[in-house]
Amino acid sequence: MIGKTPVWVLPIVALVALIWIVPLLGLVIISIRPMAETTLGWWSTQEISFTLDAWTTVWDKFPLAYAAWVSTKIAVISTLIPMVMAPAAAYAFHYLSFPMRRVLLLIIVNAFVLPNQVVVIPLFLLWRDLGMIDNMWSVIIPFAGLSFAWSVFLVKNYLEDFPKDLIEAAQIDACGPIARFFHIVLPNMLTPIAAVAILQFMWTWNGLLLPVVFLRDELPLPALLARVQGVYDNNFDQVAVAAIITTIVPLAIFVIFQRYFTAGAQTKTGSKE
Amino acid sequence: MTSKQTSGIGRRTILGALAAGTMLTPFGFGAAHAAEIEGELVMINWLAGAQGEMMEALQADFVEKNPEITFRNIVPTSSGDTRGGIRTVLLGGEQADLLINTWPAFRQELLDAGMILPVDEAWEENNWSDLLADSWKDLSTIDGKNYGVTYTFGDRSGIWYNTGTMEKSGITPPETWDDFIAGFAKMNEVGITPVSIPAKIWAHAEWFESTLLRVAGADFMSKLARHEVPWTSPEVVTTFEKLAEMLKADCCLDPNTMLASIWRDSADTTIKTGETGYMLIGMWLNTRAKQEYQLEPGKDFDIFQFPAMGMGYDNQSMVDAKEFNVLSSVKNIDAANAFMGYMLTADAAAIMADYGLASPSSAVDPSIYDPVIQRAVNEVVSAEKVHFVLGDLLPGDLVHEYRIQIQKFLQDPSDETIAAAVQKIEDVANSAY
Amino acid sequence: MADVTATSVDGSKGPPIGAMRLPRQLSQSKAAYILLAPLLVFFGVSVIYPVIETIRLSFFEIKGLAPAKAVGLGNYFKLLSDENFLRALRVTFVWSFSATLFSVMIGWALAMACALKPRETMVFRVLIFAAYGVSEAVVGFIWLGIYRPDYGLVNGILGGLGLENMQQAWLGNPDTALTAVIVAYVWTQVGLPLMTCFASIQSIPRTYFEAAYIDGAKPMSMMRHIVMPLSLPGVRVAIFINLLQSLKAFDLIYMLTGGGPVRSTETVGFFMFRESMLNFKLGYGAASTVVLLVAVLIVSTPLIAQRTRAVK
Question: Is A186:A87 a contact under the CB 8 Å cutoff?
């Protein structure tokens, strides 16, 4: 944006963000105070002491490094797939005419209303028959498949604002539809692709239901850390540690990829302005 | 999903003969068999947190005594109710030898689906009757056959209090219902709310169940669980009326607060801060009080058995328990039996005691337990009859409706509400069985 | 404006326009299927197959591990006369509508504000997105502490401000429980519209602003005439994702209220999860999923049809 921004913008955003942060701050504080102090609330001031016990316990008790590696493999592959295929699909639905176009789009988009548990048992039986239990692809395939329900819609929405003149220009040439996609449209889709990457990575990294049912020994991080909390005892300080560890990585991805949001702005202005 | 099976049919028969032949003393069952028990033992083990650690320790100790054994744990995890995860594992056809089970309704479900085997044979061969009283065997018996070996239990009719609170109010732990209610006035006078009922999800049902036990006895409860008597029975109505008596004597906080609380909140105010006087919950409160409040059992807090009502069932107790079921997909039956037997030994009990869990085995010296657990154990062991928590006996949607109707009752303990509540539960029960 | 007579990528000149009409139709379809094929494989296995299974399951009565019993449309009749399901539909209507409305409005407003100062607001945006990333169960626990009647943060602050009469058992009062849960849920959800709208705004070409600036427009007016309309894709995506996710939400509600008090926070998502995963009545749970799917299909079909009109 250009021009002098009003002074009240930053303070208001800061105020809102502060309200937002309070519960998150609580999470961090619970992880560094002894449980006896935080039972009545992490803000209780009767006795204040800090300890890294929860952190060291989680670190020692759980094979975090390996689980993180499993999580990385699963999340990265599950993210790359829609990053490539969703734009292709969105392009096809938006610019190409082919039979069953609307029906297919309807089916794909409506699939988003399906909760994960619908997928769990049928796929579990299928993977079991195929001997794919404890194989990371048993998780990656549904992660990718389910992602199309929202990622195609997302990319398509951003496409709708795409200047049509560029496409028309390319159509006059002998550029086939696929070449057009790769050379003209795709480079301008960096914004929605980045958005897809951020969301898909976060959801697959955090994913619990599918990995916990389909995987046995090759557990990703959240599945492993689900064991921290007992049925009757709380260990909430350790649970807080687990939550913080798990959430840091998708946040890092967010920071990295959101840089690409502006990439679309550069190329969209057309070639020779 | 590979399971190592090292012994063929022939070997197993020989081992079985050996087991039958060598009649061992009730203690130290595992020792003489150490050389023969081998292979992989697969357990569906959903315990997490502290109890998970405990099971790890027990398995490690067993392996020390039986070095040829390796454990493989199948760990189902799921949101909300562990049984969902277990069912998924079983539906998927995964092979396992033992299952940890704490829901009699689930045991029935497994039996109906042909997924568990009776343990009577092993029971006879290993003389587990010397270690486990018949009342435990009865808990896991269905139609004359026994399907479970109970390894731990808890008293669910124990009312917890902070010793300081009692002193402050000038009360001693009441033995009769009338004394119990009479004490409320004294507590209210010094600003203590007598009873904390956490009614958000399930813990409020404890009050209903222990009261029903006093009013109608264990046999009636069993009939109710099987829906052989209706929920509109006078015994059920009387139970609600007794609870209404309690509510009208100013026992509790306002209904909204009760509905917003879970047992941990009640524990905080009853045991930690002493703002409320009593709460009725299972033995796991002991662990919380020791670990999170850092209080001493017996000294800072204690437990007394649900007061007597003089209707003939005062020497009975509600209990919860965990047992092992042998699955029909079992491959290493000898190791499975050996482990179940091990769980009844004094060594196993000692490990469990560290984690605050009581063993039902008579091989155990109660002095290994802290005073609160000792008291609870004595109450249960000396009870004339015990009954499993009703909530774990009923089918899923019935339990849900049952808990919600008790919530409605807490909101408004009038006769109309009681009548409507029991009728509603009865309606749902009719379609649930 | 791009040069209309530019040569194609490889430098050759294309055939005359008229001659391209028929081959272009075929190659468009072929191209589409080539672009869609891998997606359809993944989608087919992970979605179509389970949906067909779910529909099949909905015609059976399954209680836990017991063998399935064929009941035809029995589950559907039971569902439509089940007062708990109907109540869940009503609760869901309020829940989804308010949660989506508030989270999108707040997210959008924040996105516009942040777009004014993208670098400085980076930390805030990360933290608000973190609220979206933390697992619902953990969020539930945090908000339990906030709403606790005796030692919770909300009542504590009210007390500190001298407003004791407003103190409540927020999660235990049937009148306030749903609102309380919605507030907690919106807290988690704002991160999404914030991100998608921000992304939309960031991808607006700078030249639009330059042109407006030259015309003498002030930032607030640029906001109204450039940013708001051009951030609509982000808004649409946010509404789509937030709305449909709210229909599925379970963990947060379970932690905060368990569906109570007296079922006042039981949404359809909660109902579905409870029936399928907790009560393990797979047939009944499947039927409720199918009903929800059909309902959403009915609503979305005209919307999608409208937005996928003529392709050039």
Answer: yes
Contacts of C250 in chain B (CB under 8 A): 79
ipTM above 0.85, yes or no: yes
- Interface check for A113 against chain B (CB to CB < 8 A): the answer is no
Return d(Cα B146, Cα B122) in angstroms, integer: 10
Task: Please judge whether C65 and B112 are an interchain contact, meaning their C-beta atoms are less than 8 angstroms apart.
Answer: yes
Question: Exposed (0-12), middle (13-18) or buried (19+): which is A135, by Cβ within 10 Å?
Answer: middle
Contact list, A29 vs chain C (CB under 8 Å) = none
Q: From the list B52, B74, B268, which residue is nearest A39 (CB)?
A: B268
Which architecture, in CATH terms, is A63-268? Orthogonal Bundle (1.10)
Report whether A223 contacts A14 (CB < 8 A). no
Question: Which residues 6+ apart lie within 8 Å of B44 measured at CB?
Answer: B73, B74, B76, B86, B89, B90, B96, B98, B99, B100, B327
Taking contacts as CB-CB distances below 8 angstroms, the residues of chain B near C74 are none
Beta strands (DSSP E) in B75-147 are 98-101, 116-117, 141-142, 145-146
Q: Which residues contact B364 (CB under 8 A, 6 or more apart)?
A: B346, B349
Distance, CA of C192 to CA of A154 (rounded, Å): 12
Q: Model confidence over B64-74: pLDDT tens digits? A: 999 999 999 99
- pLDDT, average across residues A31-56: 89
Give me the residues of C, 184-243, that contact B with CB < 8 A. none
- Residues of A with CB below 8 A from B95's CB? none
- Which of A148, A247, A264 shows the shortest C-beta gap to C130? A247
Amino acid letter, A163: P
- Indicate which of C150, C254, C266 best probes the interface with B, i.e. most B CBs within 10 Å of its own CB: C150
Instruction: Of C63, C85, C64, give the one whose Cα is nearest residue C76.
Output: C85
Question: What's the CA gap between B162 and B276, in Å, rounded?
Answer: 9
Domain residue extents for chain C:
78-307
Architecture of domain B158-317+389-432 in this structure: 3-Layer(aba) Sandwich (3.40)
The pair of structure tokens assigned to A198 is 């951020």
How is domain B9-154+319-387 classified at the CATH fold level? D-Maltodextrin-Binding Protein; domain 2 (3.40.190)
What is the fold, at CATH topology level, of the domain defined by C78-307? MetI-like fold (1.10.3720)
The count of CB pairs under 8 A between chains B and C is 107
State chain B's mean pLDDT as an integer: 89
C217 pLDDT tier (thresholds 50, 70, 90) = confident
pLDDT, average across residues B189-209: 96
- Out of C153, C212, C217, closest to residue A41 by CB: C153
Question: Contacts of residue C170 in chain B, CB cutoff 8 Å?
Answer: 260
- Residues C43-50 have a mean pLDDT of 95
Q: Work out the end-to-end distance of chain B between its first and last CA atoms, rounded to an integer number of angstroms.
A: 35
Q: Which of A181-185, B85-89, C32-36 has the lowest mean pLDDT?
A: A181-185
Instruction: State pLDDT tens for residues A194-234.
Output: 999 999 999 999 998 889 889 888 889 988 888 887 766 67
- Calculate mean pLDDT across residues B328-355: 95
**Comparing B9-154+319-387 with B158-317+389-432, is the CATH topology the same?**
yes
